[in-house]
Design brief:
The complex is a heterotrimer of chains A (291), B (422) and C (274). With 291 residues, chain A is mostly helical. Chain A has 13 helices and two strands. Chain A has one domain: MetI-like (MetI-like fold, Orthogonal Bundle). Chain A has helices at 7-33, 54-60, 63-93, 101-109, 116-126, 133-140, 156-182, 185-193, 198-209, 211-227, 230-234, 247-257, 261-290, and strands spanning 36-37, 49-50. With 422 residues, chain B is α/β, with parallel strands linked by helices. In chain B, strands 1, 2, 3, 6, 7, 10, 11, 12, 13 and 14 form a ten-stranded mixed beta sheet that branches. Chain B has a two-stranded antiparallel sheet with strand order 4-5. In chain B, a hairpin with a 2-residue loop joins strand 4 (132-133) and strand 5. In chain B, helix 9 (196-206) crosses helix 10 and helix 18 runs antiparallel to helix 19. The longest helix of chain B is centred in the N-terminal third of the chain and has 19 residues, at 2-20. Chain B is globular and about 70 Å long. Chain C has a domain at 65-227: Orthogonal Bundle (MetI-like fold), CATH 1.10.3720. Chain C contains 13 helices and no strands. Classes of the chains: A mainly alpha (291), B alpha/beta (422), C mainly alpha (274). At the A-C interface, helix 1, helix 4, helix 5, helix 7 and helix 10 of A face helix 1, helix 3, helix 4, helix 5 and helix 7 of C.
């Protein structure tokens, strides 16, 4: 059929067109820009000056940037497994029939409809030193340690994780729940008869059955961990001492606060490289499993 | 035929546009603090101005805070859009704004405007420190503040204490007013989440401001290191303030108003809010210095800038509107509503303002504190330098570095960050 | 199947979770009704001696929330509608046809999923300006009209439809659009629901991009309007006012969610993402 030679391209064209204008084009601009030194607030660097890979060398020799990379690594490596495990656990909890199930699901899911800015604002109060509820709760549990979580170098990042966790766990749970409900029951029953139970049942039987959901959930959790930094604006502004600065926030700071365009472009390139590395490997892994 | 008709009508429209002289459109971007009654006030003034000047259309653009306004101006200019004609941005951002060509000088407009020179001369000298650069005038003081010490006068009276006159007294008073190791009440709180500003009065009180000019910072001067040590002493020696980076900007005023903290070092901008919720007599003074009887404070707040890329007509209209907004009577009214210190000499002399000062003596104390004020940290690459300074101040406060180590490192990194500007 | 004791433990555990998850929002609700003159302090952060609507009155007077709602509605609605159309067309092409360069084109589109638009804020700003859409609702929405995520999700879903089914329909003289409408889309209902849900939650909450691309209240969405309340400036935190603003922004969506929860969750969960 001849028209099929053209038709698929026409169908893909709208999406491709938007992607080209708003992703590929800017990507090219950023790649080129990262090779130039341009700082808007310095008269002599007002116009781009070729700098080769100098900006990248500067970045990787800058302890502040290395700290940002470390923060981002910790943030992602703690937040994502935590989110995935708890979301899956919650999905199990709210799957089977129970009185008040709708209420429980709502309680877990509702933070999703809150903008991150509002969520962070509410948590700012919770994490406030002194009368903040978080501290009061911890005091009941017998913990009287550092009070200002947001201001403590080793706890600030954890505060951000806490907020992101509260905000996102319900959203991810819903996808797992969908997976569990759509799962082939007979396979589970058969495995049960074979004596599978507990953790083994989850890892050997259920997880493979909901592999697609898991890939999907992992991908959105990962990308949103990178692209949501709204809570930093409200809670820590990356402090104290830069110990809670995440990559995208750093990018914003470099670009808009310090007006260093060349460096901002280089940071963008590095961030994109990290994201691509993760998503592509994740995706390839699942494609292989499909076959 | 159709095309001809279109061309004709376009021509007619074009002529009409030329001869009808549309109103000059100007706008003002203003970072509105949440609780400020200023929104309604500004709207009313803009309306008044338009009634008096039918040829001008004023649009107000409200944003969340100083960074928002700066970002909006930046993105608009870089994106090729028209930035809001006038924008209230941090007084200390002048170097960044000028170097990046985001703002235009006001000199020509001052020279042109009737009474321009006298108008500029009327601003408080303490507030003009950040307005000139490269020998030109770039901004006018708009909502300016200063860092002061708030104290709970009732608690001081009950403990038979006088307001502190030196670091030593401040430490001992704070110690005496601390109850139950801070669980019930702290003696003093100094916000440390973005600490450079509230720290500056301590450095100034020790005898040296943290910077000298746009490319010279004094972070590792002995006086500055002593000031860091004094901050540490407040928790370690006097046990009167939470240890480390603890006190936050927002909660310290709440704690103070609730009687959970006897003293705070905070901005005069919080005065109206504190007076509204505090159920006790609030005292306001400049921060005591190291030597008995010496006082210190630091200015802060936003200036009115003229952004780049506007036609001469728009610039002229914008400047006239700025003069209208900064009329002594309006400045006085603004101060009464917000607690901000009036930025013009003549505003302080209006009868209405004097009557208000009689009613709210703390406002007079806040104005008086200004006598001890030095300018807020303002350098080239300001946000880079601020980030470095804050980082090491917090390291020192948290005890991960000694004051000397931290300040030496801050000096070294800041010098490097300023290299490109020398 | 399970004993009563196990159910009871599960119930108790869920109660605890619900309590923990609800606490922040419950506090915000309580705080929004707190008279502004009653300071927050140890021991009474939840309950004030009296209730007051003052925070709401002030929040409403400070920002045109009605306008923000309308803006958000159009912005999110336009994005979702556009993504459904562009996404299902592209996904249909990738799932149904083999054509030269299909893998390459798919990979190019997938790139967008891995690169947050937030990261490309600055160049995208210039593009929107160039198109003359600065400070307009289409300006906020346009970059999101083509979605790799939608394409990916729907393609996954379309792939599970047996090839023969489409071929048979084609032989029967079914046009491609009929095929898409009557065979592919109905089987992908759950994926479409998932897409709408995630687009809704993402764009409803998007913050940085609308903030940069708009400057006036005529185009600003809810989140950008909220910023006015979260940035404290030099004045200390106004928890009550912040909470009231948060409630104004959140409550209507909450109510919608409550009302439609059953249909929504059931419809969405009926077959899962396949």
């Amino acid at each position: 059929m001849r028209r099929h030679r053209v038709l698929p391209y026409l169908l893909v064209a709208p999406t491709l067109c938007f992607v080209a204008v708003f992703t590929l084009l800017p990507l090219g601009e950023v790649l080129v820009g990262s090779l130039f030194k341009q700082k808007l607030n310095i008269p002599k660097y007002q116009h781009p000056v070729f700098n080769g890979l100098g900006t990248f060398a500067d970045l990787f020799g800058d302890p502040d940037f290395l700290q940002v990379l470390a923060n981002t690594g910790i943030y992602v490596l703690v937040l994502i497994p935590l989110l995935l495990i708890v979301a899956l656990g919650l999905a199990f909890l709210v799957e089977a029939k129970l009185k008040g199930l709708a209420f429980f699901r709502l309680s877990i899911f509702h933070p999703t409809v809150l903008p991150m800015v509002s969520a962070a604002t509410v948590w700012m109060f919770f994490l406030t030193p002194g009368y903040g509820l978080w501290n009061q709760a911890l005091r009941i549990l017998g913990y009287t340690g550092p009070q200002n979580w947001v201001g403590n170098p080793s706890l600030a990042l954890f505060s951000l994780i806490l907020v992101a966790f509260w905000k996102n766990v319900g959203f991810l749970m819903l996808f797992f729940l969908a997976g569990l409900q759509g799962m082939d029951r007979s396979v589970v029953e058969a495995a049960r008869l074979d004596g599978a139970a507990g953790l083994r049942m989850v890892t050997r039987v259920i997880l493979p059955l909901i592999r697609r959901q898991t890939l999907f959930v992992t991908t959105i959790a990962f990308i949103s961990a990178f692209q949501t930094v709204d809570h930093l604006f409200v809670l820590t502004q990356g402090g104290p001492s830069g110990r809670s600065t995440l990559l995208l926030y750093y990018l914003w700071e470099v670009r808009f606060d310090r007006m260093d365009i060349g460096r901002a472009d280089a940071v963008t390139v590095i961030m994109i490289a990290v994201l691509l590395a993760f998503t592509i490997s994740n995706f390839l892994m699942s494609e292989r499993n499909e076959k | 035929m159709k095309r001809l008709a279109i061309v004709c009508s376009l021509l007619i429209l074009g002529f009409a546009a030329v001869f009808a002289a549309p109103p000059v459109e100007i706008s003002l971007a203003y970072p509105v603090a949440v609780d400020a009654p200023i929104t309604a006030m500004l709207k009313g003034w803009a309306q008044d101005y338009m009634t008096q000047n039918p040829g001008v259309k004023v649009t107000l653009v409200f944003s969340g805070g100083y960074p928002d306004v700066k970002t909006a101006v930046q993105t608009a200019i870089q994106g090729g859009a028209k930035a809001p004609t006038l924008a209230v941005m941090l007084a200390t951002d002048v170097y960044d704004l000028v170097n990046a060509k985001y703002v235009d000088s006001l000199d020509a407009l001052v020279a042109q405007a009737p009474g321009g020179q006298a108008f500029v001369k009327d601003f408080l000298p303490a507030y003009m420190g950040n307005s000139t650069y490269k020998g030109k005038l770039w901004s006018l003081p708009f909502q300016r503040s200063a860092v002061v010490l708030y104290y709970n006068a009732d608690l001081f009276a009950a403990a038979k204490l006088q307001p502190p006159k030196s670091w030593d007294e401040m430490g001992r008073d704070a110690q005496a007013l601390t109850v139950d190791g801070g669980k019930t009440r702290w003696g003093i709180e100094i916000p440390t989440e973005n600490p450079y500003w509230t720290f500056q009065p301590l450095a100034i009180g020790a005898g040296k401001n943290v910077y000298t000019d746009d490319v010279t910072v004094n972070f590792n001067a002995p006086e500055v290191i002593d000031a860091v040590q004094f901050y540490l002493d407040l928790s370690q020696k006097y046990k009167a303030t939470p240890a480390g980076v603890q006190s936050s900007w927002g909660s310290s005023t709440q704690n103070f108003a609730a009687g959970k903290t006897a003293m705070i070092i905070h901005t005069t901008g919080s005065l109206a809010g504190i007076l509204k919720s505090a159920q006790f007599k609030v005292g306001v003074m400049a921060v005591p210095g190291r030597k008995a009887g010496s006082l210190a404070s630091v200015t802060g707040g936003g200036n009115l800038y003229l952004t780049a890329g506007h036609s001469p007509e728009e610039q002229k209209a914008a400047f006239a509107f700025a003069q209208f907004l900064l009329d002594p009577a309006r400045v006085a009214q603004f101060s009464q509503a917000t607690g901000y210190i009036p930025n013009r000499l003549s505003a302080g002399k209006t009868a209405a303002f004097k009557a208000w000062l009689d009613k709210v003596p703390q406002a007079a104390d806040a104005v008086a504190a200004l006598a001890a004020a030095q300018p807020e940290l303002a350098t080239q690459n300001l946000n880079g330098v601020k980030t470095i300074f804050n980082k090491y101040l917090q390291s020192a406060f948290n005890g991960s570095q000694s004051p000397k180590e931290a300040m030496d490192a801050a000096q070294k990194e800041s010098d490097k960050a300023l290299d490109d500007y020398r | 199947m399970k004993s009563n004791a196990a159910t009871l433990v599960r119930f108790a555990f869920l109660c605890l979770i619900a309590f923990l998850m609800f606490t922040p929002i419950a506090w915000a609700l309580a705080a929004s009704f707190r008279p502004p003159t009653v300071p927050f302090a140890l021991g009474n952060v939840f309950f004030a001696p009296s209730l007051s609507l003052e925070n709401y009155a002030k929040a409403l007077s400070l920002a045109p929330f009605g306008r923000y709602y309308v803006n958000t509605f159009w912005q999110v609605g336009a994005i979702i509608a556009a993504q459904l159309v562009t996404g299902s067309l592209a996904a249909f092409a990738f799932a149904r046809y083999r054509f030269a360069g299909d893998r390459l084109l798919f990979t190019i589109i997938l790139l967008q999923m891995m690169i947050p638009t937030a990261a490309l804020l600055v160049p995208n700003f210039s593009t929107i300006r160039f198109l003359g859409l600065y400070d307009t609702i289409p300006g906020i929405a346009l970059p999101f009209f083509g979605s790799a995520f939608a394409t990916f999700l729907l393609r996954q879903s379309f792939l599970s439809i047996p090839r023969d089914l489409g071929d048979a329909a084609a032989i029967d003289g079914c046009r491609w659009d009929q095929e898409l409408r009557f065979i592919f889309l109905p089987t992908a209902k759950s994926s479409l629901a998932a897409l709408v849900l995630s687009a809704l939650s993402f764009h409803w909450n998007d913050f940085l991009w609308p903030l940069v691309i708009t400057q006036s209240d005529t185009a600003r969405p809810l989140t950008a309007g909220l910023v006015r309340f979260t940035q404290m400036g030099e004045i200390g935190a106004q928890w009550g006012l912040l909470s009231a603003a948060t409630m104004i922004v959140t409550l209507p969506l909450f109510v919608v969610f409550l009302v439609f929860q059953k249909q929504f969750v059931r419809g969405y969960l009926s077959s899962g993402i396949k």
